[in-house]
Amino acid sequence: MAAFDEMGIASGETRPLYRQVARWLEETPPELLASRRAQAEYMFRRIGITFGVYGDKDAAERLIPFDIVPRLISQAEWRKLEAGLTQRVRALNMFLTDIYGKRAIFREPIIPPELILRNPYYRPEMIGQRAPHDIWVHIAGIDIVRVDADEFYVLEDNARTPSGVSYMLENREVTMRLLPDLFARHSVAPVDDYPDQLLACLRSVAPRLNGGEATIVILTPGAFNSAYYEHSFLADKLGVELVEGRDLFVEDDQVFMRTTLGPRRVDVIYRRVDDDFLDPLVFNPASVLGVPGLVGAYLSGNVTIANAIGTGIADDKAIYCYMPELIRFYLAEEPLLKNVPTYRCREPTSLKYVMERLDQLVVKEVNGSGGYGMLVGPHASAAQREQFGAKIVADPSNYIAQPTLALSTCPSSFDGGVASRHVDLRPFVLSGADGVRIVPGGLTRVALKEGSLVVNSSQGGGTKDTWIVDDPEDWA
Amino acid sequence: MLARTADNLFWLARSMERADYIARTIEATLRLEYLPKTDGEQVGEWEGALNAAGAHESFVEKHGELSEEAALEYLTFDLSNSSSIRNCLENARAAGRAVRTALTAETWTAINDAWLELKRFETRRRVDRALDREELMRFLDYVKKASLDFDGACYRTMLRNEAYWFNRLGVFVERADNTARLLDVKYHLLLPSTETVGGPLDYFQWVAILRAVSAATAYHWVYRDRVKPWLIADLLILKSAMPRSLISCYESIDRALDALARDDGRSGLAQRQARAMYAKLERSSMTEIFQGGLHEFITEFIEDNARLSTTISDQYLFN
Amino acid sequence: MRIRVSHQVIHRFDPPARTVNQILRRTPLSFDSQYVLRWRVDIEADGARRETEDAHGNAVTSYSHYGPMERVTISAMGEVEISDAAGIVRGAAERLPPEMYLRDSPLAQVDATLRAFAAEATSGGANPLDSMHRLMAALHEGLPHHPEEKDAAASAIEAFALRRAQARDFAHIFIACARWRGIPARFVAGYRLADGSADAGVHEWAEAYIPELGWVAFDATVPICPDDRYVRVAIGFDGQDGAMTRSAHSGGAEKVEAAIRVEQAGVQSQA
After folding, report:
1. What burial class does residue A416 get, using C-beta atoms within 10 Å of its C-beta: 0-12 exposed, 13-18 middle, 19+ buried?
2. Does a cis peptide bond (omega within 30 degrees of 0) precede residue B36?
3. How far apart are CA C135 and CA C121, in angstroms?
4. What interface predicted TM-score (ipTM) does this complex get?
């Protein structure tokens, strides 16, 4: 299938947006490109921006591969995306407020109530509770794919603990140092104020205090977590403490951290620990990553948790396919960003449709993540499709299917030269009491294998720096 | 600052300092090889080195028989020796990683670079089974340099805040412990001024001590005299101009604890204990120390120093 | 029947704990066939205490303390008047819609073996109530009851595979099977008077939601629909969130002892 090439390689005519990049690629000899790649890797390794892959004990320290060729998006294109993302995240927050509050949506024939009531990520503890300022998803990572010049689709909403923003920031640092000329030939919207924006967002949702500044912390599962680098990176940039569960305790529904001077109250927790591990008194009793009594403190309003407890349901692929209707219901607006057409296998007609077209569709587990529990029909063998098909039939409500999208491609630099690879985009949307902020760009993820559509880092994908630039065409 | 962070910074500094000290001790012991002596005497040197590293007992438990290869291996790459150079660097990096946000980019890079280089040496060993003498010397040089880089990065790039002071505490508590142990191991060579000095072999022993603490040149600048055992003791215990002396370490420890007390607005047992130890060193003289017995003095010092370390842990709620 | 309960739990920490946090569901609430005459929960230890309600509507006492702690003693005691309603629970504060009790919960899940058992046990059931009675009977017949086993809470699947169940396991298996058959079910923790076969004390059973009747209690251990010898204290999706005590501490090592007396008020206890 023909993918949209963002630079225009396939069509033979370079888009004006990419003209400088195209020229630079032509001018730069392969050895120089190779040396830049090596420099980039060296820089990342020295920074220590490594991660661990679950279940791979030898991969103690792996780098997410970085592709030095930046990915460009025009200001005009970005403004459209921005509007669509803002709308979508607003709807998500209204949805969460509703399903944990008045449940108006249950009285409409939009979503079958049991999809929510029986969803394991719908937390009964939050029923009847209001999140401060009715903001549940403070930080959202919305995965976007592009199939044509003007067609963007939302692939997935990440509303629990979306990661990747540290790569977005470090990629920019490295690119600025490695490709200063290319950088100078464009006017690239800056991203380094993300930490400031995040800090402002977190401050805006602090519980009412008796004067003084809110104490904010980042809660991490610890150095063995695959995203640990990002946790420490953000803590550093925000100037806040990076804590683990054992550094905190709750007394009388207040959260404190254990400092050298004794306990110090904590007001906002940016948590990178999943709901289930947050509080052994309420959720998983075996968890050592959480803080006993944290939920009690949260329900008392003495601490704000970002993202709030219970947002996992908005992350859910089962809810994803209803987003367009949810946007219409809560905002009385037409969705600006499209959803990928999705077939819900729990519906018998859809199930039949899907089973007849396993070789054409991408089938995903509703509760899966990271690219696992997924079948890419066109790339799978007949045996794999049969095996997966059996799983679908055994538990249809756990699967949704989507047509294979031809993700757009853009040039990537390899040992073998420069070639087109499929990419997606994860912008980070911040929602605070004073509004929504989106840093221009986001993380571009690239599938490193030729023809592959799997961009997830845990399955060998890489990343690119994303540039929001002025498009010469816009001035014409 | 999180109690756990302070804990990690303190022990991180101790680990890097210890790695440096073990490397120097090994180097000094290797130098003594060049002197004519019996095999028994050379093996005795390795016993001394293990003692100086506080690792003799555990070595004997694990290996029983003492040989140069076994001692070298134990002190450098042995996984089961908690104070092997390898483990010191590994622990330092793990601690550094756990408290990334408290370290500057330069200090982290120093630790991480050290660890990356360690991995390279280990890989080479897996291939060649053991490092030959030349590679070993390169490795030891590298360890000393890594420790210097780290120390320098801390001194030059860290804000003078809690993180810095806990780091200094770790460095100097460890350094004091190391210098004291080194003296203790060699104490039987350091005779009271009334006794006659030993022959040429003893001279090299004493110089070996000085080299282990990079004081060979310093000695001559301070004393402008031949190497004399009681002056070595004086240099390493009471001379505040000598950076590795016990008194110099305690000057720094006292200053660090003072700074912490000022920042916190409160002073505690740790400050009092450190001040007392510093005062005791200030008013001591070598004559008194030799009269009371150098070994006794040092043993008591090592115990007091360890007690201060525990007091620091307790006071700043490391646990 | 008027029932008097005295239930004391002692948490000892040696070495002492640095912090202790607890969530207690130790206070029964009144509904049509259960009237709480008097009840109190005493916590003998320094610390902060709050009374709240959880998602199910249980009365929750939360306790927290920062600082060295050697012993926390929780004493719950009181008198409750129970009438026999053949297990029907009416007039209780229902915070969650019945459909929510169809949710999967960690300790009450089914596997192929349990599905087969549930299918067979309820086959021929004329209506939901009948099916649940059949399920209760089949469970009681099919699984040996081992009240002495003091194991940590196993899941329904584990208990069934081990062919060995305590009251809480019976409850979990019942709940798992009922839910699989599309009938909302939940976990109940409470007290029970002694009868011929069992001692008085803490007990666990299940409730199933029967259309038109409402919530009905089923105790597969006996088997019986709880009568006027049962005091209903807390409910949950399973024994994890329906537990009478959830406790966590940092530092130190914990040992727990309990002393329970459940007797008919007005009658002297013999033991």
Report:
1. exposed
2. no
3. 5
4. 0.92
Q: If we measure between CA atoms, which residue out of A113, A89, A91 comes closest to residue A103?
A: A113
Highest mean pLDDT among A4-8, B153-157, C156-160, C245-249: C245-249
3 state DSSP class of B319: coil
Residues in A touching B316 (Cβ below 8 Å): 260
Task: Count Cβ–Cβ pairs < 8 Å, chain A vs chain C.
Answer: 77
Residue A425 within any structural domain of the chain: yes
DSSP per-residue letters across B148-176: HHHHHHHHHHS-SSHHHHHHHHHHHHHHH
CA dist., res. C237 & res. C188, Å (int): 9
Which fold is adopted by the domain C2-81+244-264? Immunoglobulin-like (2.60.40)
pLDDT classification of B193: cutoffs 50, 70, 90: very low
Contact indicator for A51, A370 with CB cutoff of 8 Å: no
Contact C27, C248 (CB under 8 A): no
Residues A291/A250, Cβ–Cβ less than 8 Å: yes
Token digits for A85?
A: 């993302």
What's the pTM? 0.86
Helix spans in chain B (H) = 3-32, 39-52, 56-63, 68-76, 85-98, 105-128, 133-157, 162-185, 200-212, 216-223, 229-238, 246-264, 269-283, 286-292, 294-315
Domain boundary among A365, A385, A403: A403
- Kind and range of the H or E run holding A413: strand A409-414
Percent of chain B with pLDDT over 70: 91
Q: Which CATH number fits domain C85-236: 3.40.50.80, 3.10.620.30, 3.40.50.300, 3.40.30.10?
A: 3.10.620.30
C223 cis-preceded (ω within 30 degrees of 0): yes
Count of structural domains, chain A: 2
Mean pLDDT to the nearest integer, B243-247: 93
The verdict on a CB contact (< 8 Å) between B112 and A258 is: no
Write the CA distances from A438 to A83, A234, A270, A370, integer angstroms. Answer: 10, 17, 18, 23
The two structure tokens encoding residue C141: 């017949």
Task: Give me the DSSP letters along C121-153.
Answer: HHTT-SSHHHHHHHHHHHHHHHS-B-TT--PPP
B151 and B9 within one domain: yes
Average pLDDT over residues C69-97: 95
Residues in B closer than 8 angstroms to A243, CB to CB, are 2
Give residue B237's identity as a one-letter amino acid code: I
User: How far apart are the CA of B119 and the nearest CA of chain A, in angstroms?
Assistant: 12
Question: Which of chain A's residues have a Cβ under 8 Å away from the Cβ of B116?
Answer: 45
The residue assigned the tokens 């640095």 is C18
Report the pLDDT averaged over residues A421-428: 92
Range of the structural domain that residue A419 is part of = 16-123+139-188+319-338+405-475
B interface test, pick of A45, A173, A260 with most B CB neighbours within 10 Å: A260
| Interface residues from chain C to A (CB-CB < 8 Å) | 19, 21-23, 47-48, 50, 52, 54-56, 62, 64-66, 95-97, 99-100, 102-104, 106, 237, 240-241, 246-250
- Determine contact, residues A192/A175, Cβ cutoff 8 Å: no
Separation of CA A253 from chain center: 32
CB-nearest partner of B98 from A223, A236, A258: A223
Please report, as a single letter, which amino acid is at residue B233. A
Mean pLDDT is lowest, of A241-255, A391-405, B265-279, for A391-405
Nearest CA-CA partner of B81 in B54, B102, B47 = B54
Residues B6 and B82 in one domain: yes
Residue of C nearest to A123 (CA): C55
B212 is written with which tokens? Answer: 């282990």
Q: Using CB atoms, which chains have 3+ pairs under 8 A with B?
A: A
